[in-house]
Amino acid sequence: NGQAQMRLGYAFADAGDLARAERHFNAALAASMPTADVHLGLALCYVSTGRPREAAQALEVARRIEPGNPVVEANLGALALEAGGAAKAAGYFRAALQIDPDLHQARFNLARALARQGRRADALAEAQLLLDRLPAGAPQRAEVERLVAALR
Question: Can you tell me the mean pLDDT for 67-75?
């Protein structure tokens, strides 16, 4: 059962057992799961075990399966940002936010990518917009407030 294999993959990934998680995600693929979620899970395993190229390949497959999936775009952006490609990352984050303006992690990372490009005013605008959109009790507020303060 591909669905069960995928769920087991995420359960093991959440528990930090990435080797077992990867085996279950591959079993879900073998069962022909027609969803980007399996590839997102594999990408998580790959990036967490130091295999960013494989993660990028898994995300590109996910992108072909579900074009316009904002989580896939945001994850491609995170990989690009980690690899030092701030401009490329910003493009992915903008694409994710066009699809889902409430994807807060993508907006936070867009602000970081803009800051790395030396575009502090643009980065501050994105960080402030994120801060304005977050609920008062959101646990992420403190981190976003630190980013806003650093960009001022």
Answer: 97
